[in-house]
Amino acid sequence: MKREKNTQETYAPRHLKKETVMVEETGKQSGINRPLCILLMILGITVAWLHIDSRPVKTNLTETAEKADPMPSEYRDIWLKNKAINSDYAGQIIFDSGLIDLPFVQAKDVYDENGNAYVFYTAEGETVADIEEYTGNDVYIWKNWKTGAYDRYEEGGSVFMDYRNSLDDRNLIIYGHHFARDYDPSGSKQFTPLDLLLKKENYDRNSSLKLVLDNEIRTYEIRAVLILDAREEEQLEIVSTDVNHDMESFKDYAALIEKLSVYDTGKRIREKDSLLTLITCVEHRPELRQAVICSEISRKVYTD
Fold first, then answer.
1. Which residues constitute the domain of residue 174?
2. What is the full DSSP assignment across 139-207?
3. Is residue 12 one of the residues assigned to a domain?
4. Residue pLDDT, tens place only, 252-272
């Protein structure tokens, strides 16, 4: 199917519907309960509708990014290799501790760059015929970014950036599934390792990370680890691509982060910070989400 892209969406994302925000899934073998905490991550898929502003926010980092030449080959080679596999590849998220090192993709619409509709899958692996209520955030939930095939149990779909994001946004949002450890005892799939950050003793050694982009590396420090209730609209304000409405709104946003934090990291977001928010589920708590709030602390832009 090939159609003109919608330049304006007039429908609400389907996951705004409260009854579809989250479900507790069973395993692939009949009769065996293997909860896979499905991130209908889409808490966030949804939330950018609350406050969205396409105007880029000028920050000190944007204006004073360090320029370097060239990008280290270990990172550039990864980017070029993965971009050749899928043009939706957007970058790599890498914790300095090794906690997570994963590619992430971004589908900006329900249509690809050639105007062809993406293939969408339900959680059960059925192909979706009517995509009118779908968004770019639905493209990779159950899809392997390398093969394009349905993939719920091996890789658990793909890690992806919110389709509304541009790299100039004040808050970049990346989603990944969480696998319950009674399904995957290794705790290594997708964003499952983020649950280690719910314990303060794991914070210090896992507090720094980077995004490897196209000839650019952004370094971040975790400011807060939160638990959100997907049923509470106020708490979903955390998952907004625009947090720069005005000073009072920013203060409210910062206060909400402090209120929902699992523990005090000793760090705070600042008025000019560029943010990165990582979203996943909470094991066996389908109504909850874990959010990791990070502030950008440096940026290097490379030339070929």
1. 20-302
2. SSSSB-TTT-SB-SSSS-S--EE-TT--TTSSEEEEE-----TTT-TT--STTGGGGGGGSGGGTGGG-
3. no
4. 888 999 999 999 999 999 888
* 252 phi/psi in degrees, rounded to 5: -65, -40
| Tokens (6 digits) for 136 | 């770019």
Which of helix, strand or coil describes residue 105? strand
Q: Are strands 101-105 and 89-95 parallel, antiparallel or unpaired?
A: antiparallel
pTM for this structure? 0.83
Find the DSSP H helices in the chain: 42-47, 60-63, 73-85, 247-260
pLDDT digits (tens, 9 = 90+) for 78-136: 999 999 999 999 999 999 999 999 999 999 999 999 999 999 999 999 999 999 999 99
Other beta carbons within 10 Å of 76: 17
Q: Is residue 274 part of a domain?
A: yes
Distance, CA of 207 to CA of 99 (rounded, Å):
10
β-bridge mates for residue 219, sequence order? 210, 298
